[in-house]
Amino acid sequence: MSETTSTTEEKKLPLNGRRAIPPNNSNDEENEVPEMEAFGLIPRGFNPRDYLRVEDIYMFKEPHEINKQEHHTDKYYNPKLIVRRGQAFQIQIYFNRPYKPETDQFWLEYLMGRYPQQNKGTYIPIVVGNVLKPGQWGAKIIHRENNSIRLSIMSSTTCIIGKFRLYVAVLTPFGILRTRRNSATDTYILFNPWCQLDAVYLDDEKEREEYVLNDVGIVFHGNVEDIKSRSWSYGQFEENVLDACLFLMDKAELELSGRGNPIKICRVASAVINSRDDNGVIAGSWNNTYDYGVAPSAWTGSVDILLEYYSSKQPVRYGQCWVFAGVFNTFLRCLGIPARLITNYSSAHDNNANLRLDFFLDDEGKVDTRLTKDSVWNYHCWNEAWMTRPDLPVGFGGWQVVDGTPQETSDGMYRCGPASVQAIKHGHVCFQFDAPFVYAEVNGDIFYTKMEKNGTQVVEGIDTTHIGQLIVTKEVGGDGMMNITEEYKFREGSDEERLALETAVMYGVKKQSVQDTTYQPQTDVEMDFQAQKAVLGNDFKVTITFKNKSRNSYTATTYLSGNIVFYTGVTKSEFKKHSFSAKLEPSSSRSFDVVIRSSEYMSDLLEQASFHFFVTARINETGKILAVQKATVLEIPTLRIKTKGELVAGKEMSVIVEFTNPLKQTLENVTLRLEGPGVLRTIKKQFGRIPMNSTLTWEVKCTPMRPGLRKLIASLSCDALRHVYGELNVQIQKP
Description:
This protein has 735 residues and is mainly beta.
């Protein structure tokens, strides 16, 4: 009985003994603000109409008007006022009579959340003064005419990011008169990379245009030998996307008072982007089955994902690393934090973070999948966000790694970052957050280790250059690739690189030294492995080359294992086994070709068409083992996109998508997606089947809204074939 009464009491009282007021972590909730706040008893003859009264507030919120132009927010497809913090904006107030500064007294109030408090930055009263101080809240009159005044308002450079409610309060002798709640005067305040006092200030205009204002980007994938690229629509200015991004912070229960801090925002966002442990935005799936959801490769951008999550409040299925990174990039750019998407080729997923990835070999020199727990991802995508780091020593601001892909837990949740890129390069991995994990992703060594019968481990080979071979992002102002490997690490083998490694080890990154294990490699024979470029559905050959630099004759028992892998380096199946004995004459080279037939790999092929080859060779005379591994990716056919009609804003045009099936089989249950920010919202279409060698044509009519250079992006997905993309740049003319 007592239990039931206590629960009813709890329902009545949302408070607990620890807090005076409940947590204020929703930007959506509101409190009620009285229109008349009396100071005491009101005399009978009091008529509020006798006093100064606000008739209307004009916000200058149209895209072509001064506020959105000066604040670089004119691209947001949102009818309300959107400004950036630390920079003045204007509003005009119309009163019922001319304003008399000698006797009339009024002020502005900006409120956020259910429990606005001045010391938390969620209740901001602004009295009109004579000067605006940079970086502080204030307002001054810049123009008076008839019954109206125009105000210039300055927001603080540390102000909370989100949607504020605006009230105008007028003082009368008997109480305060306020304007009625009017959502049309709501004001969004965002980060300001154009303002020197803002924590996200970026000093290069071209970089700001790329990292804040560009709504399409490039994802680099494939592998280091065969780099592929595809476009991704970030769409941070599309309708409702800003509200969806603010909702993510509510979902993560980030206290409103913490939302002016980009470090906090990045940290909670890296957890809420994935669905692990908090029902976040995207559910990951790496097992090639995507029931009741969309295959990760089919998405063409972030907008559909964010809007679906915003309306359903349930994780959207499914994503892999570039989808998490694409959506995270949209979130950051939308709020005004400069951000870019990064690809690390040959990324180490080191389960015990000891900077050493162990590949265990069995007696024959084959990789033992039972013992091998670490994996090398062909590539892994994460994000960098630009900000100062006042929580770290000087010099660690700038680009910070943030990663929304759920790989390992950090402080009990699947999240990663922000970790300073500069700290990772110099090995200062003691600085928060998650620097050791990122350091291992770009710096591990691969150890080929053989387990002897008595349990001792013999190291047969060490590869120090395979991990983090290439780190790239899209170039500023173009679609090309920018190599940023040097931002993360010193040149392989240089003194600085060794020093950074020793620093990282000193700060607690575990590294087993080679001295712990016996290691005497075969130095007088070299083995190399090359795979021919191949198109999906065709045969191709691989070549193993031995170079015997000694004066001895050797025979090498060689084993080639071809595996179909997920892009995460995890094997799905071995489709090719081939052994041969190679006679190696003194001081000479010899090559061996092995043909890989399409019939051997097509039935098991995974969506990224990735293969992973292991070659191990035992030199019979010495018993030593040579090992090499290489990932290779097939060429996947592309979609062709054309346009028909005039390309003019406000006029109907046609987009035509074509695809020819190159496989020796019929494609079934094919889904096409097409989108282009500012030209058309995402459209999907199902096609039953495409017979081999036949061509599918799909025509879509649309009316582009905005002039300028735009990008159309299309994808095709079906069970037999994924990662099929096409894109087209279109110049939309002014009407």
